[in-house]
Every structure is written in structure tokens, then in C-alpha cells.
Write a structure and sequence with these properties.
The protein is an alpha/beta fold. 29% of the residues lie in helices and 21% in strands. The mean pLDDT is 93.
């Protein structure tokens, strides 16, 4: 059975980053989007990245950010990958000399396959729940049966995942990776160490 990777997103503190890494998470997500309750500034992000052990991928999440803003962040923080979670075009995502992937919000009627095909330069496609006016981090799941089986890029599944449903999600969707934020929190932006460990353990149970 294929290994499923785990990303813990919305990390806002060194303590939560270390918990995620020690639990065995493959990646952590840092949100550079001011309106989010999980947003970090450059100072926070640098401290978090500095505290991580080797082999944990750092992902910077941006929502309709300007090219200047992204470049300034990259100059200040060591990020391994970029995640675009807004209305960015393929051209908006390219040109940073970093691997990147695109988040698509799934709702009835969307042609996921066609939309994903527009982003051929993406290292992966992340599928998240659609909630009007909210770019992500809603804590709500979506109908996994809407996911096509033949996407050309690796699939990262997000949206309402938690320790209680992640095994079922993996069994049904068979994603390359799973991405969790609210499902392992005490409150927005603060992780629950026990739930982080439980989530990673349940994902790794599929190895």
C-alpha cells in the first residue's frame, strides 16, 4: 500500500511546529494571509523554520498575494514549497524557482479534472471544501465522490479532516497526501498535541 504523506497546516508557534515534526508529519504549513486567524508574520515564520529538524518540508500558503509580497517573504523565510490558495492563474503561480501546488475548492458542478489540467506546472493539486467568501481552513469536508480518479498531478486532500475521519478519507480517495489544520486544534491557530499525534498515527497506519 502506498505511503500517504501528512501536512499539518496553520502552524503559528515553535511549540506546535516541533510537536508536528516529532509526531512524524512530512510537512508544515505557514499561512501568509493576514485575514486568517492562523496567519504568521515573517518573524514568527523564521523562528518556526529555524526550530524544525531536517527533512520536514516547509510550505508557504498565499492567497492572491502580489509577486512583490511573495518574493519579499521568500527573501526572509526559508520555504521549500509554495501553496496558492486563492484565484491565482497558472502564470501567477510560476516564476519563483520553487515547487508549488494549487488549491481548488470543490463544490457540485465544478469540473475538477478540467480545472486541475490548467495547472500543469503544479507539483500537486490540493482539493479543499468550498465555502463562499472563505479561501480555506473552514473545517468542513466535501463530497469525496466528486474527486476524479485520473488527475495528472498527485492529489493532496484537505477540508474537514480530523483523526476521526482521516482513515475513511484515505480508504475512499487514496490521496498522495492529507492536509489538516482545524481538525487538530484547541482553537484556531493553536494545535492540540494529542490530536496531532493521533492524526499522524492514523495516517501512518496505512503504510
Amino acid at each position: 500500500m502506498a505511503i500517504v504523506r501528512t501536512k499539518i497546516c496553520g502552524i503559528t508557534s515553535v511549540e506546535d511546529a516541533v510537536v508536528a515534526a516529532e509526531a512524524g508529519a512530512d510537512a508544515i504549513g505557514l499561512v501568509f494571509y493576514g485575514p486568517s486567524p492562523r496567519a504568521v508574520d515573517v518573524r514568527q515564520a523564521r523562528a518556526i523554520v529555524a526550530a524544525l529538524p531536517p527533512f520536514v518540508t516547509t510550505v508557504g500558503l498565499f492567497v492572491n498575494a502580489s509577486r512583490c509580497e511573495i518574493n519579499e517573504t521568500l527573501d526572509a523565510v526559508r520555504l521549500d514549497m509554495l501553496q496558492f490558495h486563492g484565484d491565482e492563474s497558472p502564470a501567477d503561480c510560476d516564476g519563483y524557482h520553487k515547487p508549488w501546488y494549487k488549491a481548488l475548492r470543490v463544490k457540485p458542478g465544478i469540473d475538477v479534472r478540467a480545472h486541475a489540467a490548467e495547472y500543469q506546472g503544479a507539483s500537486a493539486i490540493l482539493l479543499d471544501s468550498y465555502v463562499a467568501g472563505v479561501p480555506g481552513g473552514t473545517g468542513e469536508s466535501f463530497d469525496w465522490s466528486l474527486i476524479p480518479r485520473d488527475l495528472s498531478q498527485p492529489l493532496v486532500l484537505a477540508g474537514g479532516l480530523n483523526p476521526e475521519n482521516v482513515e475513511r478519507a484515505i480508504a475512499q480517495v487514496k490521496p498522495y497526501a492529507v492536509d489538516v489544520s482545524g481538525g487538530v486544534e484547541v482553537r484556531k491557530g493553536v494545535k492540540d498535541a494529542d490530536r496531532v499525534r493521533d492524526f499522524v498515527r492514523r495516517v501512518r497506519g496505512w503504510v
